[in-house]
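Need residues for this backbone.
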C-alpha cells in the first residue's frame, strides 16, 4: 500500500531518520534563557507568545509547527537543561516554547493548564482513574486537544517509553484488511467523561473513531474511556463487532511494523498532533521515593492554524471552528491554573 500523504508513515522508517528530532543548540538555549529571565516572576498564564521572543529559534519552531499540522504529526525537541534549572524556569521555558504551537487549554476538571504525568498511587483498575497518574501501561489513545506536549523532568528506573503511531496509516490498514470493521469504527462509540462534565452535558458522549472529513482522516480513540462507559446502565453494551474492531486497531498499533518507540531523556519535549497520531506508554518501574519518580509536564494546546474538525467533535471539543479556542475540559465553577507540582 503506497499512499502519497506525509501523515502516512511506519515506525521502522522513522527510526532510521532523525527528521523528527531537533536538538537545541547553545544559541537556542541562550535565547530561551533570555526569554525566561524577562518573564520570571510573572504568572505563567499571562505569558503569551509575544512575551517570549526567540529571534532564531522562533523561525525554526514555525517550520516545526507546519510539520506537526500538515506533515508527519510529531516532533521531539531535545536538550532543555531541566536538571540544572529550577522547576519554575523549566516550566516557563516549556510554556513559552509551546506557545509557538498553540494556546493552552484545561486538561482536567480542576482547570489545570499545566499538567503532571506522575505515579501518585492511583488504582489503575478503577474505571474513573486517569492512567497517567499510575505506572501502569497506557494504551493507545488521543487527548482532547489539537496538540499534546510532554516535557520530561525525570525518567523512571526502567520502562515508561513513549510509543506513537500514525492513526492515518492505521485507518488505511484497517480499510485494506477489514473494510467492514473500518465501517464499524466510523460509527459512534459511547465514551465516558470520567466525571469531568461540562455545563449542560451528560456523563458520556458519542464519538466515532474514524472521520473522513475535509479531505483528511481524523481519528479520535480512547478505548479505556469507551470501556469505562459500560459501567453506566443507560449505555448500550458494546457489540462483538465493535470489540473486534477495537482489537484490530490495538493490535496494529502495538505491532512494531507500525509504531515508533521513543525513550525520553530529561529535557526532551515531545509534541504530537492528536488528530493524526495515537500515543501510548509502556509500564515502568519507579523509585519508592515520590520525589524521585518519573515526572513529565504536559500541555494541551489549541492551535489557531489547525485542521477543520468533524461536527461530531463539538460534543467533546465545544468550539471546533479553525482559529477558535477548542478542546480541553472545563467543569463548572473552575478557575484556570498552572500548578508547578501535582495537586
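Answer:
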Amino acid at each position: 500500500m503506497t499512499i502519497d500523504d506525509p501523515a502516512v508513515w511506519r515506525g521502522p522508517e522513522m527510526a532510521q531518520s532523525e527528521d523528527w528530532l531537533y536538538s537545541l543548540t547553545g544559541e537556542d538555549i541562550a535565547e530561551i534563557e533570555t526569554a525566561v529571565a524577562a518573564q520570571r516572576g510573572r504568572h505563567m498564564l499571562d505569558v503569551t507568545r509575544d512575551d517570549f521572543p526567540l529571534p532564531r529559534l522562533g523561525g525554526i519552531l514555525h517550520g516545526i509547527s507546519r510539520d506537526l499540522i500538515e506533515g508527519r504529526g510529531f516532533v521531539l525537541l531535545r536538550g532543555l537543561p531541566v536538571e540544572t534549572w529550577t522547576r519554575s524556569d523549566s516550566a516557563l521555558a516549556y510554556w513559552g516554547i509551546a506557545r509557538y504551537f498553540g494556546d493552552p487549554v484545561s486538561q482536567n476538571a480542576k482547570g489545570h493548564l499545566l499538567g503532571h504525568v506522575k505515579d501518585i498511587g492511583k488504582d489503575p483498575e478503577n474505571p474513573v482513574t486517569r492512567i497517567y497518574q499510575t505506572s501502569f501501561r497506557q494504551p493507545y489513545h488521543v487527548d482532547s486537544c489539537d496538540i499534546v506536549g510532554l516535557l520530561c523532568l525525570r525518567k523512571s528506573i526502567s520502562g515508561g517509553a513513549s510509543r506513537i503511531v500514525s492513526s492515518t496509516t492505521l485507518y488505511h490498514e484497517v480499510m485494506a484488511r477489514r473494510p467492514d470493521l473500518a465501517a464499524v469504527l466510523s460509527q459512534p462509540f459511547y465514551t465516558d467523561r470520567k466525571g469531568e462534565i461540562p455545563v449542560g452535558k451528560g456523563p458520556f458522549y458519542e464519538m466515532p473513531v474514524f472521520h473522513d472529513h475535509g479531505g483528511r482522516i481524523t481519528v479520535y480513540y480512547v478505548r479505556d474511556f469507551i470501556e469505562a462507559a459500560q459501567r453506566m446502565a443507560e449505555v448500550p453494551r458494546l457489540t462483538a463487532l465493535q470489540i473486534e474492531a477495537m482489537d484490530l486497531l490495538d493490535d496494529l498499533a502495538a505491532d512494531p511494523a507500525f509504531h515508533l518507540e521513543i525513550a525520553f531523556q530529561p529535557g526532551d519535549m515531545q509534541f504530537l498532533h492528536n488528530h493524526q497520531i495515537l500515543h501510548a506508554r509502556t509500564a515502568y518501574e519507579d523509585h519508592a521515593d515520590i520525589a524521585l519518580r518519573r515526572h513529565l509536564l504536559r500541555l494541551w494546546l489549541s492551535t489557531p492554524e489547525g485542521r477543520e474538525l468533524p461536527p461530531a467533535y463539538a460534543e467533546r471539543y465545544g468550539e471546533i471552528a479553525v482559529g477558535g479556542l477548542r478542546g480541553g475540559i472545563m467543569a463548572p465553577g473552575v478557575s484556570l491554573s498552572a500548578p508547578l507540582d501535582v495537586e
